[in-house]
Amino acid sequence: MDRAELAAFLRRRREQLQPEDVGLLPGARRRTTGLRREEVASLAAMSTDYYTRLEQKRGPQPSEQMLAALARALRLSDDERNYLFVVAGRNAPSPAATAAHVAPALLRVLDRLSDTPALILSNLGEVLVQNRLAEALYGGSSHYTGFARSEIYRWFTDPAQRLIYPEHDRDRQSRALVANLRAAHGSMGPHSRAGEMVRALRRESAEFSRLWERHEVAKRFEDHKVLVHPQLGEIEVDCQALFTEDQSQALLVLTAPPRSAASEKLQLLGVLGHEQFKDAGQGR
């Protein structure tokens, strides 16, 4: 681990970012250029003291999880992220870990969406990052591990996952998720994590096995959908998806027409926050 180079790199990248680059308000006049240390620490979900020690060349060797969080907080490119890992004394991320690194271009768009639910998904249906309104609508997902990080896997193994969709729309959602997974399986191959997930789901879900045999392939999301919130009831939203060039990640933006009942519910969701809704069912 090269503490001096790690400290210099972190400090330089922090100074190159402005609050609006990461979805923060500029606030009062700032005495220093770039982000504050406490802002980077908050974005990376670590203590300010921990991050400060890294910049002061006296911190411990960060874990791979910490480095991934820092790379996301500092909006690093793939090359910059790999460099961060190397100077921290870690191997560059594996292809599987690289796929979970949020595309900076999508993240920049997400940073500017504060008045409507928006989130970034991997091609396996894993929530990589979401804004406050998306978490309020869907609930948090950071506590999931393994295959359960994928909404596709949870849809076929956890009945609570389906509660956010009206009962009459769940068959369509099942087919859509299987078609999305088949598209990922086709691009990643049978020996990839997608292949492992398919084999696990075929063992665990008769419904998945039946739908898998239909050989439907699609990489898209329903343009218009109805979501069911446990407190606010049904919310009609339009769904727009923006994909990365390699189709491995998608930014989903949910909107409602101005002055509509759904728009009012989304505004109410923003006022109430997400704390009382964090146990809500998940689904896209």
UniProtKB/TrEMBL annotation:
<dbReference type="InterPro" id="IPR041413">
    <property type="entry name" value="MLTR_LBD"/>
</dbReference>
<dbReference type="Pfam" id="PF13560">
    <property type="entry name" value="HTH_31"/>
</dbReference>
<dbReference type="InterPro" id="IPR010982">
    <property type="entry name" value="Lambda_DNA-bd_dom_sf"/>
</dbReference>
<dbReference type="Pfam" id="PF17765">
    <property type="entry name" value="MLTR_LBD"/>
</dbReference>
<protein>
    <submittedName>
        <fullName>XRE family transcriptional regulator</fullName>
    </submittedName>
</protein>
<dbReference type="InterPro" id="IPR001387">
    <property type="entry name" value="Cro/C1-type_HTH"/>
</dbReference>
<feature type="domain" description="HTH cro/C1-type">
    <location>
        <begin position="34"/>
        <end position="81"/>
    </location>
</feature>
<dbReference type="GO" id="GO:0003677">
    <property type="term" value="F:DNA binding"/>
</dbReference>
